[in-house]
């Protein structure tokens, strides 16, 4: 299975909603993002959205793998593809944000070389209508991680 661009006519919202539970938030960035996915047959099993911030920085706004395909390496494959695409497009820094309650994701990103660079206090409280809970913890703050890719991947 290879990772291919996804065009706006076939946005896999079901997958994107796994990582970001509000469609209004997804719609605020998805149409300005480079969208890629892994297909199995006619169905997407993984997806990510790469959103340009400025000429040197890009953010992975959404990365998700269908629940029945998790823990099989697809997330890592998507993340590595995102880093490669960012590098090809001339970006030097890749950012990714996740909730303070997203313990597995925080570990995963750091193992792949991302470092915590910022905390957006109360981000999820201010931008989402309903409280989000993960791992028995309320998701309040966005943890921003960054990986510098100018000279390495």
From TrEMBL:
Domain (N-acetyltransferase) ranges: 1-150
The organism's place on the tree of life at top rank: Bacteria
Q: Does the keyword Transferase apply?
A: yes
Alphabetically sorted, this entry's keywords are: Acyltransferase, Transferase
State the InterPro entries in the record: Acyl_CoA_acyltransferase, Bact_Acetyltransf, GNAT_dom
User: In this record, what's one Pfam family?
Assistant: Acetyltransf_1
| The name this protein goes by in its record | GNAT family N-acetyltransferase
**What organism does the UniProt record list as the source?**
Flavobacterium cerinum
